[in-house]
Amino acid sequence: MELKFEAKPIEQVESDAVIVVAFDKDSAASGLTPEVTMAANAATGGWIEEVYESGEFAGKPFDMSLLHRPTGLMAKRLLVVGGGKGAKFSGAELRNATAAAVRFLKSKGARSMALALDAGPALEDLATAAAEGAILGDYEPDQYKTGEKDTHAVETFSVAAPGAPGGMNEFLDRALIVAEAQNFARALASEPANRMTPSVLAQRAREMCFGSALQCEVMDQATMRQLGMGALLAVAQGSAEPPALIILRYHPFEETDGAPHLGLVGKGVTFDSGGISIKPSENMDKMKYDMCGGAAVLGAMQAIARLAPSIRVTALIPAVENMPGSRAQRPGDIVTTLSGKTVEVLNTDAEGRLILADALTYARQQGCTHLVDAATLTGAIVVALGHLYTGAFGNDEALLDQTLAAARAAGEKLWPMPLDEEYKDELKSPFADLPNIGTRWGGAITAAMFLKQFADPTPWVHLDIAGTAWLEEKKPYMPKGPTGVAVRTLVRLATGWEEK
Ligand code: BES
Ligand code: MN
Ligand code: ZN
Fold this sequence. Notes:
Elements: E1 2-6, E2 17-22, H1 25-29, H2 35-43, H3 47-54, E3 64-68, E4 77-82, H4 91-107, E5 112-116, H5 123-137, E6 156-160, H6 168-189, H7 198-209, E7 214-219, H8 221-227, H9 230-236, E8 244-250, E9 261-266, E10 268-272, H10 292-307, E11 312-322, E12 333-336, E13 342-345, H11 352-365, E14 370-375, H12 380-385, E15 390-394, H13 397-410, E16 414-416, E17 434-435, H14 443-455, E18 460-464, E19 470-471, E20 481-482, H15 487-495
Parallel strand pairs: 1-6, 2-4, 2-5, 5-6, 9-11, 9-14, 10-11, 13-17, 14-18, 15-16
Antiparallel strand pairs: 3-4, 7-8, 8-11, 12-13, 15-18, 19-20
Bound molecules: ligand BES, manganese (II) ion and zinc ion (ZN).
């Protein structure tokens, strides 16, 4: 998709469709309607007022009404999309409203679209969010549908605002990089497990790094053995597919001794059958998404390489398939992790924390001064937060706050979760240093507490994206499937590091 900025009044915007936002009735009554929406109303002889009066449009989120051949406008169609409460409207709402509008219009055959905004202090944020929304809305996980596709990709999307300051294209360029990175993560995650093995994921990472500012290294099983990554190897041993530890390195233009070095760690379980502690067959197909954390980290690195922040970043993605083969680990096995700590594997389905333990230790050995991991780690986080918020845990208040702020700025929903030392009482093994599962309660917290043992004392944040990494039921702004959650937060964290 080509993105461009046009400093034109709405009347002069040429495209298959021009989009304006209108708020709910109360907001409209209190004069919160955007000027550009009033202009569209005036040009069309009061069409927008009329759709409100007819009852077909109330300005609620994702309400839409479409007018063909709007008088007074050069665009072929005018779409009014609801923005909800005007006073609450910000980039996050506009990102989704734009994505919904794009999905609607492309289903009607439009190939070029424009969104008209008012120039003003919020324009940079709004234009960025809208451009991201357009690219995110254009994504379809339909690569395995043969024959004629239902919709075609959008060719151009422009943001139009008369009297905008110069330099707007820079914001759109950044939006393109970030949203394409998120769609790249979604594309990786949407591959089924027969086509996305650990080796394939590693190959995709290599291809992504080719010709970029990133160095890529893929650690193989033999090296993991030499180093003593007993936990990662134990999970991998039940599968015929060999594991891979994917390592991507980004170096800033200027490096100084003692400068921060961010480590991004992503869970890359390409299929989680549960292992010998096998999962029920219902919904087991969803476990192809158990590499969404790894996909998010790869996507974030793609954007980081293009945006060139001034902080050093290393990505580590332990990639394995968790299978109940004849060589599989058994409940009760005791493994020695890279850190030297021993773990009693009481449940082979708690595999994510095992592979992350070794990856976190390795990240620390590589000199990372700050760690952030993203993982579809527990069903318990879905019980706690549902599908709206990602759970955020950490051992360092400053880094946790920084991550929450990055998420807010990037328009992703993160909720802080507790991680008091007392929770460690849940992780006691009579035979090893710690078990890989806790008791019945607070499962997302005990999983995080397990990881903490391997991250400490390095400042670390853990994002449990099990509830947010994929969408069960399609939304107006997103199809069913992978969401690419965490990409924008991770990118913002790296690019915004010096501003903190
Ligand atoms: N990959 C799952 C977590 C998961 C569950 C992700 C549902 C998305 C949706 C993870 O490896 C797992 O199986 N966790 C277990 C842990 C338990 C055995 C302590 C769980 O959450 O049930
Ligand atoms: Mn599991
Ligand atoms: Zn898993």
